[in-house]
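thought: fold this chain, then report.
action: predict
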Amino acid sequence: MEKSPIDRKRESGGMAEVGNKEDGAILEMTKIGERLIVIKEKSIYETLMADTIDPKRTNINLPNIIHKLIINQGVDSEMVGRTFLTAKTLFQRVNFEEAIDTDKAITLSLDVLHELAALQNEINDYLTKEQDVIIEYEQKKSIPHSYYIPSITDTETRCKTIFQKADHVEQFLIEIISLFYHKEGLTKQSHFPKFYEVIEKKYGEKDPFSEFLKNARDFMVLVRELRNALDHRLDFVSIKDFDIQPDFTILTPTIEFKNKYSTLNRVPLSSFLPIVLKNLMFIFENTLVYMSDKLGKGTMGKVVREIPENTRRYKFVRYSFWSPFGEGGFYHQ
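observation:
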């Protein structure tokens, strides 16, 4: 039978430009489940086929290939390297038993990347705002008989958004963890205290994974408690705008928290917020590394190791499986 015009179009070859020159070169195209992901130097895209969008072939004007920006950061980004690309490097299907859904784990790592990028933007916006207010205050301070306290009127609202994003990272990470430790009763509704209990029981209190999680647990609990207190306007959290002291000095905005689960002594937001982002990336990366080392198929001496800088495929992907093949071994990147 002669093919219809739309069938001929959909089944024909062709080419398409992904992104723009500012995104840099395409370094990799990878399939995750049914999704085709294009990884560039400064961005990540998803490629959508016309038949995926219009499987019944009703619209001949639909382009055969359509590209969707996932994030405007690529392999040059530390955040991308230590989250999505680390997950993609470690969670290769061949490294784990079939019961572990590694494709879903990698997809969820993209969700983590989205939340971290949004969190980074919120934190940077706040830091910029605080610095602008300080500059304005210093300029006006020299005006005779002009006395006022600088202010960021939506400080608490900004913090609420920031800790919602931080808590979302924890939720997505727990969902990834549950894919690997579902046999131990972990689900996506679990949280880090339960995760720590499982790992301590399974590997022992002195195991490096347990020791790492003991500290990670405390921080993740603080993040969840801060989010909860801000969402419900609880007295456990105190966020103060610029605050004048008796000696006429002015403190920059601060945050303080205390309940039966966590304590955070009063600390400047400009110091604490960057630490939140840094800790979340560190905890995400190292959780993936420890899980992979524990649950990966350790056949023929295969283990997880840190990749020497001079042999890394991507600068910020620091870990991969390693096999003792040849001089110095082989890093599965």
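thought: worth noting. Residues 230 and 294 are 37 Å apart (CA to CA).
final: tokens above.
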